[in-house]
Amino acid sequence: MNAVCFLDEPHHKRYQMFLRRLSPRNRAKHPFQAILFLATGNLQLLQLFSDYFFPESGEFFYQELLAEPIDSQVVEVERQLLVQLYNGRTTLTIIEVIDRLDTRELKLALGAIQVRSFGADEATVHH
Q1: Which residues pair with residue 3 across a beta bridge?
Q2: Alpha-carbon separation of residue 17 from 10, 29, 63, 90, 100 (angstroms)
Q3: Rounded CA gap, 31 and 52, in Å?
Q4: Are 22 and 55 spatial neighbours (Cβ–Cβ below 8 Å)?
Q5: Which mean pLDDT values do the consecutive 10-residue runs of the chain (127 residues) have?
């Protein structure tokens, strides 16, 4: 089992809310778990993501998401990471992730990578 550390209780609640809206088949897929983990950890990213991801059908209009103008380098890096975790369609270097994310957002990104690799079976909340 893979214990996942959420940033805080609201992050965990938002993740669970989105996860429940997925079909049981998609709910078990690591790419969906990873993008939900990442998107629900940053409210600015979640607001953008929500316009292009439809949990009930599992549709993710990532090309349209990538075309949206962004003025935050944190959201830009996390947006690219979302798409890369979902289907590998962007190329984001580890240095971009390290240099552009603060400690909290880096923990979020690393957690999403962990979820993509191993899934999210258990949850612990970071305080």
Answers
A1: 122
A2: 10, 16, 25, 27, 28
A3: 16
A4: yes
A5: 85 96 95 98 98 96 96 96 92 93 96 94 57
Count of domains forming the chain: 1
Tell me what pLDDT residue 66 has: 95
Rounding to the nearest 10 degrees, give the CA dihedral for residues 47, 87, 21, 4.
-90
Position of tokens 């550390």? 5
Measure the CA–CA gap between 17 and 38, rounded to whole angstroms: 14
Domain carrying residue 95 = 3-125
* Cα separation, 12 vs 4, whole angstroms: 10
The pLDDT assigned to 30 comes to 96
Question: Sign (positive/negative) of CA torsion 124, 34, 55, 57?
Answer: negative
DSSP 51-98: TTEETTTTEE-HHHHHHS----HHHHHHHHHHHHHHHS-S---HHHHH
Length of the chain: 127
Q: Which residue has the tokens 């809310």?
A: 17
Distance CA 124, CA 8 (A): 9
- What is the phi-psi region of residue 18: left when phi exceeds 0, alpha when psi lies from -120 to 50, beta otherwise? alpha
